[in-house]
Design brief:
The chain is an alpha/beta fold. 41% of the residues lie in helices and 16% in strands. Strands 2-10-9-8-5-3-4 form a 7-stranded mixed beta sheet, sandwiched between helices. A 3-stranded antiparallel beta sheet has the order 11-12-14. A two-stranded parallel sheet has the order 1-13. Strand 6 and strand 7 form a beta hairpin. The protein is globular and about 60 Å long. The structure holds pyridoxal-5'-phosphate. Pyridoxal-5'-phosphate binds next to helix 3.
């Protein structure tokens, strides 16, 4: 590999760029996870996470990836054979379905075309038709990282309420929390699933569940086997700032710092920044003459944009060229989108000039790869960003 000067552009939709402040916090000497300094750290982190999830309820932190947090949401609340309503919004929704099936749950998977979010009317119809209340949970991916389409969680909640159905609402906020407005309590979510490597600006390694009182109640009778993922032991030890097993101490040091940064900027400003960068990116993609994968403007993701390649041109060849020439990583197409799309991550620790550099790299790459496109995407984005 040739030496690459300057800094790498990590513009995949997670893991995201980890700020220097967070890296320094993680780089501190590891502390005793049963001592008083750690207890203060953990209590700080739990309080900060409650503000980010917008919940007064419990937050559970695992040393895990997001997939572990998915598994935890299911095994703590459900029993073998329970029915779960899920929606094919994209690759990650299908993976969550696979986890549920492997655990012995019965999934009603509503088909989708990977170009939009969940239709709340379908949620209402499915629950309305479930007269003997067999469906125990509705599981929603808030921001489909494989497509760049969001689902309107609050509208899904209202659809569940209109149907008068008691199912638990579970939401994957893995690529939305701390990037896109999200309200666990206000939207009546029972389990929110998240992890560290996206909007929270950390490396991978922490999985999160925010848990409602109703979900806690369900956990008392849920019969899926669980040990590592059991909420109960966590909830017993966490209030004093401790864990039932060794926590990821240094990542938690990083999390305390990233939470401080989010509160210094202010969550509303963080969300507005993501919306603005997403709009600038879409203007660039449209000016290039490329199609945006998400077809419903009301569901455009503030965290990433997925661009469709012209027929016959390989998105992965373009990504490879951009990586080799400009030292920038863009997101690959996942599942059936492999080779057909590339994903531009604009979430986490990010600013106007980082976006400008990202779009410059793409525009130069499109030229060098001889992809049929119109120049001017960068200019369209800069005009938007520099508009008073
Ligand atoms: C929306 C969503 N859900 C779940 C996952 C899986 O998380 P992990 O790869 O950390 O297990 C991802 C990963 O990117 C994701 O974007």
């Amino acid at each position: 590999m040739r030496y690459a000067s300057g800094r790498h552009f990590l513009q995949i939709p997670g893991p995201t760029n980890v700020p220097e402040r967070v890296l320094r916090a993680i780089g501190q000497a590891t502390i005793d996870h049963r001592g008083p300094e750690f207890s203060r750290l953990a209590i700080d982190v739990f309080q900060g996470l409650q503000k980010v999830f917008k919940t007064g309820g419990a937050v559970v932190i695992y040393p895990s990836s997001g997939t572990g947090a998915w598994e935890a949401s299911l095994v703590n609340t459900l029993s073998p054979g329970d029915k779960v309503l899920m929606f094919e919004t994209g690759y990650f929704a299908a993976l969550w379905r696979d986890v549920a099936r492997k655990l012995g749950l019965e999934v009603d998977f509503v088909p989708g075309d990977w170009r939009r979010g969940i239709d709340p009317a379908v949620v209402e119809a499915k629950l309305g038709a479930d007269r003997d209340r067999q469906i125990r949970a509705v599981a929603v991916v808030h921001n489909e990282t494989s497509t760049g389409a969001t689902s309107r969680v609050h509208d899904v909640r209202k659809a569940i309420d209109r149907a008068g159905h008691p199912a638990l609402l579970m939401v994957d906020t893995i690529s939305s929390l701390a990037s896109i407005d999200y309200r666990h309590d206000e939207w009546g979510v029972d389990v929110t699933v998240c992890c560290s490597q996206k909007g929270l600006m950390l490396p991978p390694g922490l999985g999160l569940n925010a848990v409602s009182a109703k979900a806690l109640e369900a956990s008392k009778t849920a019969r899926l086997p669980r040990a590592y993922w059991d909420w109960q032991a966590m909830l017993r030890d966490n209030p004093a700032g401790f864990f039932p097993y060794t926590p990821a101490t240094n990542l938690l040091c990083g999390l305390r710092e990233s939470l401080r940064m989010l509160f210094e900027e202010g969550l509303d400003r963080v969300f507005a920044r993501h919306l603005r960068h997403a709009e600038a990116t879409r203007r660039a993609v449209r000016a290039w003459g490329l199609e945006i994968l998400c077809q419903n403007p009301a569901e455009y993701s503030p965290a990433l944009t997925t661009a469709v390649m012209p027929e016959g041109y390989d998105a992965d060849a373009l990504r490879k060229l951009i990586l080799e020439k400009f030292d920038m990583s863009l997101g690959t197409g996942l599942g059936k989108l492999k080779g057909k799309v590339f994903r531009i991550g604009h979430m986490g620790d990010f600013n106007d000039l980082m976006l400008a550099g990202t779009l410059c790299g793409i525009e130069m790459g499109l030229s060098l790869a001889d992809v049929p496109f119109a120049k001017g995407g960068v200019t369209a984005a800069l005009d938007f960003l520099s508009d008073r």
